[in-house]
Amino acid sequence: MDERPGCLSGLLKLALLSWLFDWLQERFGFGRGVSCAGCGCGIVLLIIFLILACSVITGTDWLRLGF
């Protein structure tokens, strides 16, 4: 059985991922750090966020209401 999580779980994962991304951007993201180190960390965090968000979006059964 290859069961995927339901839409409530997907929404919860996206909310937590968004909160974590915002927190990391405040600490290490764009405009933080010495010279362009903040820009580099911001881009790396953005790429990681996009990969994880795509993973959650494609791995969730949006038509099922359950965890």
Structure, briefly:
This protein has 67 residues and is mainly α.
How would you describe the overall organization of this protein?
The chain is mostly helical and 67 residues long. The chain has one domain (11-58). Helix content is 66%, strand content 0%. It is built from two helices and no strands. The protein has helices at residues 7-28, 37-58. Helix 1 packs antiparallel against helix 2. It is elongated, with a radius of gyration of 15 Å. It starts with 6 loop residues before the first helix and ends in a 9-residue tail after the last helix.
Topology, element by element:
Blueprint: H1 7-28, H2 37-58
Biggest sheet features: none
List how many beta strands DSSP finds: 0
Roughly what percent helix?
55-70%
The structural domain count equals 1
Structural class: mainly alpha
- The share of residues in extended strands comes to under 5%
Order of helices and strands: HH
Distance from N terminus to C terminus (CA atoms, Å) equals 16 Å
**Low-confidence regions:** none
How would you describe the shape?
elongated
How much is the radius of gyration in Å? 15 Å
What is the helix tally? 2
Keywords:
67 residues, mainly alpha, elongated
